[in-house]
Amino acid sequence: xxxxxxxGILLSTRVLRRxxxxxxxxxxxxxxxxxxxxxxxxxxxxxxxxxxxRFSITEVLVPFSAHYRAFPVALxxxxxxxxxxxxxTSLLIKRLPRPFWRTIHYSSYGALILISFxxxxxxxxVGSPWYRWLSLTLIGLASLAIVTRVLVGRSVNRAARPRRxxxxxxxxxxxxxxxxxxxxxxxxxxxxxxxxxxxxxxxGLDLVVVARRRVAEGVVGIRLARADGHPLPVWxxxxxxxxxxxxxLERQYSLTSDPADRQSAEICVRLSPTSEGGSSWIHxxxxxxxxxxxxxxxxxxxxxxxxxxxFVAGGIGITPILAMIESLPARRDWYLLYIGRSRATxxxxxxxxxxxxxRVTVFPSDEHALPADLxxxxxxxxxxxxxxxPESLMDAVAAYVSPERLRIERFVAVVRQSLAGLHSTEVTCxxxxxxxxxxxxxxxxxxxxxxxxPIIGSCRKGVCGTCEVRVLGGVPEHLDSVLDDDRKxxxxxxxxxxxxxxxxxxxxxx
Length: 510
Description:
This protein is an alpha/beta fold and about 500 residues long. The strands form five sheets. A six-stranded antiparallel sheet has the order 6-5-8-3-4-7. Strands 11-10-9-12-13 form a five-stranded parallel sheet, sandwiched between helices. The radius of gyration is 26 Å and the shape is globular. It is built from 14 helices and 20 strands. α1 (about 1-15) packs antiparallel against α2 and α5 (about 100-120) packs antiparallel against α6. It folds into four domains: about 1-160, no CATH class; about 165-300, Translation factors (Elongation Factor Tu (Ef-tu), domain 3); about 310-410, Nucleotide-binding domain of ferredoxin-NADP reductase (FNR) module (Rossmann fold, 3-Layer(aba) Sandwich), CATH 3.40.50; about 425-510, Beta-grasp domain (Ubiquitin-like (UB roll), Roll), CATH 3.10.20.30. This is 2Fe-2S iron-sulfur cluster binding domain-containing protein.
């Protein structure tokens, strides 16, 4: 249990980031935590089987009922229930409010201290100096862990707290204020006008462009940092930022830099020939020193732990995969197939070949008469396959890889028709204590905004996942392109910008 707690502290302070990727580190922490509960259960069973102590099931489960050293034994029983609470809520972390889970999780520190005192004053070896020293060491380590976590938590809270001279934009009716908030917060610099004072949205970040570079033909890299100098929120490979651009536009861009660098992060933007104003504005107007508002980071393409990976990237689809590759330790088994129109248009192609010549295959289409042999590449076999790029590429990969092994991220939404047919739905937002009818001609997200329910909508096409809500009742009909439908049902979530309801009533946790 000491290992589990201290490992969790190292995870929160990111000390171990250089040795492995976060998903594997979290798995080790979870494994040690589960083993600590298992060892306590075995200890309790052994007490009931011990012919000298003769503990009953009541004595090992009910505090202060033991005939032998009732008080220190009670400390161990209480600690056991704390462990069960921590382990149970960790299994349900996706379904619980984050503050509630965090509060329960912190009780593991108290459980460790209780178990240390329990061991120091209950065991049959308590008179031995080595035993007392061991208990005192555990207590000292637990206390150090608590102090470290408190100090880290204070620094994070201090970083997140807005300064006295910041202007806070209140959330009123989102439908009426979305475009004006984006316009005011996105570009408060002289080229496009706007307020001179920093603007901090309650659901966004105030960022400044600290560097701009050309990474390929038609592709620029934009490095962003918080305007107030504080660290960026924690993010993992596969995450993206939603930039709020002039005219109410919002666009999502994958983070390509090192997640361990909390001071700045980089996105790469390709100039689209059919740009609706997003990429063209970034290429022509967004330069060093300018400020822009963003939401996130968000992640629906996170790198899951696995012994081996195959990555398939098409063009600008290399951006989320680059951060994944850089996060993996040298011993992890992975290969990349990177497809593009030409080497000049493929960001990071030369760097990847130079750094990983035996793992990376770059396939510029203008240098080959035939398309890339996806079947041969995917025949290598791997536990998980990650693919990002044009829709045609992802469809081709999906033809060879089973759904349980495939992870994809889409740039555009897949057109999905409602099987339930368009009908009105009664929606209840439980925490907001608001109920309303969603007509067949309106989306659930639009009606939530119309009734002042606190929710953020970004792409409004079912791609970015910003509007994710938890479903408490009713049957959602998933029409988005964010996650696999079975995965959404397992998590109990939906994306109300395009998804609807198969039932006549829907209860949401918002």
